[in-house]
Amino acid sequence: MLDSKNADVWLVGGGIASMAAAAFLIRDAGMPGRRIHILEELGLAGGCLDGSASPTQPGFVTRGGRMLCEEVYQCLWNLLDSIPSLERPGLSVRQEITAFNDEVRTEAHARLIGRGARILDARHYGLDGHDRAELTRLLATPEAMLGARRIDELFSPHFFASHFWQMWRTTFAFQNWHSAIELRRYFLRFLQEFPRMHTLAGVRRTPFNQYDSIAVPLQRWLLGQGVDVRFGHRVTDIDFDQADPARRRATRLHVLTAQGGQAIELAAGDACLVTLGSITADATYGSNTEAPPLVRDRRDGAWSLWETLARKADDFGRPHTFFNVDDNKWESFTLTMNGRALLDRIVEFSGNQPGTGALMTFVDSAWLMSLVVPYQPHFPGMPPDTYTA
Ligand SMILES: Cc1cc2nc3c(=O)[nH]c(=O)nc-3n(C[C@H](O)[C@H](O)[C@H](O)COP(=O)(O)OP(=O)(O)OC[C@H]3O[C@@H](n4cnc5c(N)ncnc54)[C@H](O)[C@@H]3O)c2cc1C
Known about the structure:
single chain, alpha/beta, 4-stranded parallel sheet, 15 strands
């Protein structure tokens, strides 16, 4: 049991998981902010929730945007209910997002695009009785029986050619060879999206990119509460007092900073929560002329720390299961447009104003390339007549 007034909590990683943990500890457990410490190897908060000026050339980069929805993100909404909006004084971030989505509703008119720039009729999901039976079988099969099976072991070619699968896999980033267990979890979690896959009408967006609309106000609130946020702190190892998982306690964090290595001793009542295996680990940037280099040797702290911990005890999981870079890598791009010419052509083609279309997928592209045109401006303080997609 955590003594919330006297213990210290050490949070490794500065993504939404640690930021949320810090906020809940303050709000719900009454912990003083100064007793909460976030150690982040990068120079900014938010982890995957990023959005910034491009590091390689003029322009902006958002590696991705979360497609939030009312039904599923209850914990996030509850968190954002307590965080003041920076853009709309008097409102919480949750209220700000709700008000924004009341004004800018998602209703895609061009979800799937086929050959010859033809908008496909995505209302027809294209599933036959056999596909439905395979879907139902997956939902009814317990995870223990699915084991390491892949999606393409469980469905027939007709299913993979359906509009439904083209929409589902591009909404949730699935390849046909990915884990069947993962797909089953997504089906169960996002079941309510089935009838609105073709419009993505369930999607809730933030007014700006999610770094500026979620991470920045949350970070500001945490700092206001006195939370000790340390950037440039990479945790390389954690010492434990014993092997028994029921009694095991973290006793020391090994940290690397620009000044060198240091050890942080944890007192008997302290707690330590660690984010392992980030989805954006070892992300690299390309440019208009250079492809991003592919990192295969796990330089990022999230995976190397997990590997180090997994060597200490079996119950720390098996990070190697996820180390197949070629099967799991993904790429995104951000267009920065000076002038409205392309934006207006996309609006004319799709019938969607920026921010209302969610995702356009080019089904004959070998990458199943998808394009999102967010509400503009997507960054606070963007230069005039500049847009991103
Ligand atoms: C392009 C994209 C699209 C996505 N779309 C969706 C979506 O539509 N819906 C959805 O629900 N989710 C989506 N996600 C996933 C979601 O963004 C992540 O699950 C979530 O942000 C993870 O938060 P986290 O705090 O757990 O980890 P992260 O955001 O990965 O944060 C981990 C942090 O820990 C730091 N760190 C790691 N190791 C160490 C260490 N050893 N020492 C110090 N610091 C360390 C990292 O630098 C990072 O800042 C998407 C993700 C991406 C990238």
